[in-house]
């Protein structure tokens, strides 16, 4: 039950982020729906592909699909209701989606008996894959590889689950809250992983 | 038989559209072949992936593959024969390819017992997926999400077939003609679905 | 044994090329790892998808994965060690990776009993797919379709193996050397396949 709620929050948050990008690119109504659905379900699809679940398992998510369609329809019809609030609450929603999907992806891969590396990748892909496909389809440079430790938190969630450090509703709930809080903190304090620009090491 | 002809028309139309983009991007001979093949067969490959058919079913389409190679070779060797005519007849060919592939994709998904939503998505992906991959590979912003109801017509074809409103050669033939005509009309009269630019709803 | 060495060289060369692009794009540490892994393993993943091997077979390559991680860590920590040398030896490494992966992809497809066209495509995808995904993820225009016969040499390797013209360690070794040499020669002498710019055939 807790789990379903998290999944719903993730789906809504990612569908809305797809709607925003589609509106920024001046897509029409169908383009808005498609980009929203791709963002909400694309991460799970790529994860399924790489860990050996049939991608067509997507079609069993009928309820989430319906919720996403309803949310996107409301968002498209009444943008004034939420666009301004998005800047304030969007980050929180996105962090919750990131955490929920990363944890779900890691559990999925664990249940299939994959090794730790695959569990971490599954967490990362489920959490960030939808946004990646959204950016590629919208002709944008995917930012998830240089944003403030965005993908890093999903990998930590994957590591924790892959090492079996938490379990049960309470353990997963704590992990969920931890990922959300860490993601929020990394944005507010602009935490950065080490970068290296190439030029400085090249001879002139 | 009718069906094979439609499939051949779709393959040729999409292969040629890939050849045009490859020439615009100054690709070499192999680049031309690859972009043509990707455009002609990419939609079916993505559709197969998402509805649970092995993507390797691609390799059973030997005849279509051969036809596409021959057409692309002629197109590359004698561009003056067709490039100018393309602007006039290319739209019709593209509409026929769109309709044929959308109908084929929807039938495919229906036969596999997928729900209506999957049938619509299969129609949309088969009809438009090849052009999408072509644009991503050529480093272009995919336009199918904002062109004149491009993807919308494929979804209507999927809806009609998913609801079992038509069947048989005659029913499918009528649907095919309807999609082609609607697509042509939407270009000539510049029909547009509702758009929303984001800025107007943001506070300054 | 010889084979494993080739595979290791290919993986290292492609992982380093991903690291270079990630540094040029100012990605952070995790972005560097991800782009390196995608470049090294993406071609095999796409090949598996298209010839009907489960993509999850990726996870059996644990040793290569570990090698890639170690190499990328060293490369990130000590860029001054190799970035300047890369321009001199990078081309050779890349050619060896291209040849090793193309041959491996073609053998894979042959063993599965696919027709000649699939063997050629498997060779091309395994050799060049990783670089393609790398460029798309980094928001760059994929260059492999117009670089000096880059993909062409992989297809020749596929053709030779698909027609069963070579076999055994010695035969494959000769093919490997031939592909590397041809690739190097095509860069040094700037061999080009025929190009056609579209504009010259369009009426004004």
Automatic annotation (TrEMBL), chains A, B, C:
Pfam families: Gly_transporter
Annotated family: Belongs to the UPF0126 family.
UniProt lineage: Bacteria, Bacillati, Bacillota, Bacilli, Bacillales
Topology of the protein relative to the lipid bilayer: Multi-pass membrane protein
Keyword Transmembrane assigned: yes
Transmembrane segments: 6-23, 30-50, 62-82, 89-110, 116-137
Keywords annotated in UniProt: Cell membrane, Membrane, Transmembrane, Transmembrane helix
Glycine transporter domain: residues covered: 5-78, 92-161
Source organism per UniProt: Halalkalibacter nanhaiisediminis
Localization, UniProt: Cell membrane
Protein name stated in the entry: Putative membrane protein YeiH
Principal place of residence: membrane
InterPro entries: Gly_transporter
GO cellular component: plasma membrane
Family matches, as PANTHER family: INNER MEMBRANE PROTEIN, UPF0126 INNER MEMBRANE PROTEIN YADS-RELATED
């Amino acid at each position: 039950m807790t789990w379903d709620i998290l999944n719903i929050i993730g789906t809504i948050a990612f569908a809305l982020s797809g709607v925003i990008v589609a509106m920024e690119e001046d897509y029409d109504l169908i383009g808005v729906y498609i980009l929203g659905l791709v963002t909400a379900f694309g991460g799970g699809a790529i994860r399924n592909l790489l860990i050996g679940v049939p991608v067509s398992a997507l079609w069993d998510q009928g309820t989430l699909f319906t919720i996403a369609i309803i949310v996107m329809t409301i968002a498209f019809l009444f943008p004034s209701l939420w666009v301004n609030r998005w800047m304030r609450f969007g980050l929180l929603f996105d962090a919750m989606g990131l955490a929920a999907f990363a944890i779900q992806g890691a559990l999925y891969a664990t249940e299939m008996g994959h090794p730790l590396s695959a569990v971490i990748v599954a967490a990362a892909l489920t959490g960030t894959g939808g946004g990646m496909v959204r950016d590629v389809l919208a002709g944008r440079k995917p930012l998830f590889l240089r944003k403030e430790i965005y993908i890093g938190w999903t990998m930590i969630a994957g590591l924790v689950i892959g090492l079996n450090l938490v379990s049960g509703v309470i353990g997963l709930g704590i992990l969920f809250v931890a990922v959300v809080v860490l993601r929020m903190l990394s944005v507010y304090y602009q935490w950065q992983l080490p970068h290296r620009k190439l030029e400085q090491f090249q001879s002139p």
